[in-house]
Input
Amino acid sequence: MTESGPSHDPQPPAVSDAELRETFRRAADLAADHIIEMRSRPVFQPMSGEERRGILSMPFPEEGLSPAAILDAIAEHILPRPFGNGHPRFFGWANSPPAPVGVAAEMLAAAMDPSCAGGDHAAIYLEHAAVRWLLEMVGMDEPGAFGLLTSGGSMANLTGLAAARHQATRADGVDVRRDGLTGAPRYVAYASTQVHSSLQKAMELLGLGRDALRLVDTDGAFRVDTAALREAIRRDRAAGHRPFCVVASAGTVNTGAIDDMGALLEISREQGLWLHVDGAIGAAGALDERLHDRLGPLARVDSLAFDPHKCLSVPVECGAVLVRDGELLRDAFSLVPPYLRTTPGTGIGGPPWFSEYGFQQTRGFRALKLWAALSHMGRKGAAALIRNQHDRAAELAAMVDEAPPLERMAPVELSIVCFRYRPDGAGDAELDSLNRRIVDELQSAGRVFVTGAELDGRFAIRAATLHYGTTAEDLRVLVDEVVAEGRRAANRGAP
Ligand SMILES: Cc1ncc(COP(=O)(O)O)c(C=O)c1O
Output
């Protein structure tokens, strides 16, 4: 085929060479415009009823559309209604903007479209290399350690807990993979009340039950109370249960609190428990040397969920699970049916397959965007990115502290600031509903985007400073908008 196209009309999904180039160039231009023009648009705008219906009722076309028509439809109906996380005034949840080079890599990964289940092809070695960079970031790069990329933190947490369960059942002579948990002791794990819901889901999926994740109280800084943890373990042992795992949070979803990792390591070792860390939000914080004391112990934990699509600006989806004992992880998951057996070192065999270390068989080429984003930053740039997120949060916290109607509701350890609008004389219940309304109104108005959190039963406005382009002026706009909306909402009174 030539630039001018083949002599016959290619049938979809094939396109002529010329159309292919034109399609890719236009897609690249659309992507570039989308990112470059981001600031001039609202952070977020809810879809109108007509827009929703327009998309939901699209018929499956009888005759295929041209790639140009498809890109027109994307430009008109899809690109203008984003989630919002690309915007520097998006402070919602834990969604960073995509690193531009990661976006380009995503397209190239799709063009190659390998399965990263395993094999002797470049994508596999790139995943090993990119995972090694993550292991190095937290100091887990010891012989025997293994990691693999996942859809995100939830899957990384599930995988880490599966490894923990496997270690415990194996030690107890329970063949959980063959027999399930029939006749097994009651396995219990521990985390703080601030732990992310994905850990509870993981306990459910692993057949352990959500209640077997004991939620231990926290101190005033939302870090797990280690004395209460010890007591919970003691109580469970006395009741004949089988403690098997401690889950620490390196960056809780609500406030970014970092549990006392050193103390949790000590307790886990002393009690013979697996230490899994949910570092979806905070593992990359290890790049900030100011947090060395808090996050240094990550180097010695048993498993760690690390989410490059949260703090490292890798386009979603890109999570990672890192496990100290790679062979144990393989033992927990490996199941290679005859049709998938290969000979190491021959044909497409290659190194042990990633699919033996996790649940997924066909796996996407996530490593390319991770590797591309990290390569562009370099170690220094990645550290600067993370430090900047922490600095912005500290700056925002200071602005909140200096704006009297605002009240800060938690210490700031990483990149999350929780606060509320608090006019004189209002009680907690009234403040909850007032601040919820502020969040809802701000989301719809599109100048800044914040979300909420519940802290000790009280509603907080929550802002995460993960965008590399957020300026001090953006933070000022955020504070001013909250105060202005707070005044309006308070004047309107309860709905
Ligand atoms: C602390 C924490 N852990 C785990 C997760 C789940 O990660 P993901 O959404 O990537 O599955 C989140 C998501 O916000 C989180 O904040």
In short: Residues 377-492 form a domain with the Aspartate Aminotransferase, domain 1 fold (CATH 3.90.1150.170). Residues 93-94, 152-154, 157, 196, 198, 251, 253, 278, 280-281, 307, 319 surround pyridoxal-5'-phosphate (CB under 6 Å). The longest strand covers residues 242-249.
